[in-house]
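User: Please fill in residues for this 217-position structure.
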């Protein structure tokens, strides 16, 4: 049976060649995801932004650095988890001479989500930390949710425990210290759930576009 790296390499090549929606026309790179493919914890956001599109790596802009801080305060780091997005290309619009982020359409999400589903099959995580309402809706397969009611509470979806939480970009843009502590608390809860399930964060070869020591965006 192929190992996870082999399966990821094959899947990444399929995504690079994907032209199922129009997002490929403006992308610089696909953003496959990175981290420990054997981790029991998968962290999922909605879509790449400008920095992610340039580097081909998830959560490497301001929101990514903020997420790293929160992981550290929960006694975790990027090498222990796997991080991905529902969308593998940056949804954006051209305004003047610049491309600006926009939310993906329902159709774009429907088309692109098959890649994340395959990633979940390969990784086989026991816990998913979903960052923000769009990612949470997708993971829970719900059209509407109330994040203020479900945030911070594990929801079991088949054999996976899903922890809905706040997206780092949302916290940086609209909120403050209290919301940061909510995210840290949710990450800690995921860490504790790993131990509760009798699992651990085993060392593994890190799957990434670039070495982690070059992470200096």
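Assistant: Residues filled in for all 217 positions:
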């Amino acid at each position: 049976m192929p190992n996870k790296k082999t399966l990821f390499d094959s899947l990444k090549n399929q995504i690079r060649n994907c032209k199922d929606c129009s997002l490929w026309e403006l992308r610089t790179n696909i953003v496959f995801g990175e981290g420990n493919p054997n981790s029991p914890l998968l962290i999922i956001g909605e879509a790449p932004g400008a920095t992610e599109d340039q580097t081909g790596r998830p959560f490497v802009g301001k929101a990514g650095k903020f997420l790293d801080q929160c992981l550290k305060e929960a006694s975790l780091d990027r090498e222990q988890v796997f991080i991905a997005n529902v969308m593998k290309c940056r949804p954006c619009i051209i305004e003047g001479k610049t491309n600006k982020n926009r939310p993906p359409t329902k159709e774009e999400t429907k088309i692109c989500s098959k890649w994340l589903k395959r990633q979940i099959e390969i990784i086989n995580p026991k816990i998913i930390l979903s960052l923000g309402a769009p990612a949470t809706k997708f993971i829970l397969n719900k059209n509407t949710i109330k994040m203020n009611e479900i945030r911070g509470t594990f929801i079991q979806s088949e054999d996976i425990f899903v922890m809905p939480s706040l997206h780092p970009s949302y916290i940086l843009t609209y909120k403050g210290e209290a919301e940061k502590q909510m995210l840290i608390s949710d990450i800690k809860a995921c860490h504790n759930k790993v131990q509760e399930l009798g699992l651990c964060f085993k060392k593994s070869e890190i799957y990434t576009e670039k070495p982690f020591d070059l992470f200096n965006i």
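For context: The two ends are 37 Å apart (CA to CA).
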